[in-house]
Amino acid sequence: MAGAPQISVMKTISNTRKAAPQPATETARYWADSRIAGLEMLKAQYVRHTFARHAHEGFALGVILHGALAFRYLGRNHVAQPGTVNLTVPGEVHDGHGADSAGWAYRMFYLSPQFVLAAATEAGMPAGRLPEFSSGVLQDPALARGLTLLHTQMEQQDATMPVLEQQVRLNALLAHWIHAHANRNTCTGATGPQSPAAGSARQTGSMPRAGCEPRAVRLAREYLDAHSAEDVRLEVLALHAGLSPYHLSRVFCRTLGMPPHAYLTQRRVFHARALLATDTPLADIALTCGFADQSHLTRQFKRVLGVPPGALRKNVQEQ
């Protein structure tokens, strides 16, 4: 990406719980280097925070520093312990919370599908295909050390780290990750996860690529995408999809891993995130995207993305 390197310094979010046996400070810093398109990073410590069920548009790859992260992913419960690598793939619904009262801390890379696609090709995957992974937690000490070191140095050195060094080191780590842990017999399409068999989708909670899900769910999804700022009623959505309200709710949740109202909230959050690049006040963004007010936007935004919109806005605007 052209232009001078810009890395945001995000505001620290904290709250303290007096009776906690461990320090209860929650901090989150989200940033990116405008020289590398498709890459964002997060360093966070969460104690009481709980991520709502959601799905990313790209890959998430990181390392647990201390504590333990518990999350529901691929149809089963995972616990990522210190020193393990945790990951999610595009479109796969998951949540996240501390495995116990101590919470967890981690460093995360968020990678666009195009970013991972280039690394996958270098790692010997079929051209134009994204890798799939059968687990959300990996036991790979070498990969964990490499990701932690690079992430830490990219934060500490900011724009003084040559972009070439960042690219070379990150590409080598991604190639190792894909070569060592990706499924060799199945891959996803370059634009997102391919639709799994119906039974697989029900078991894992995978969100199939738009157009590949059952027709009724596709119609409902398209309607919610087009009317995300509106107070959509279930009977209207069901009529548009051609199913009864009860049946639609069941098949929607079974196919996408989340109920219609949760999908609607996620679309609103993604819409709000896109508007952060403008000068529109957060209160106006909230109303534009269908939230009741700015505090409502902030609560839902943090539940899905882990940081409040005001903090993330710095990163978006500087890029």
Automatic annotation (TrEMBL):
A GO term, aspect molecular function: DNA-binding transcription factor activity
InterPro entries: AraC-bd, AraC_XylS_family_regulators, Homeodomain-like_sf, HTH-like, HTH_AraC, HTH_AraC-typ_CS
Region Disordered, residue ranges: 188-211
Coiled coil: none
HTH araC/xylS-type domain: residues covered: 218-315
A matching Pfam family: AraC_binding
Alphabetized UniProt keyword annotations: Activator, DNA-binding, Transcription, Transcription regulation
Protein name: Transcriptional regulator
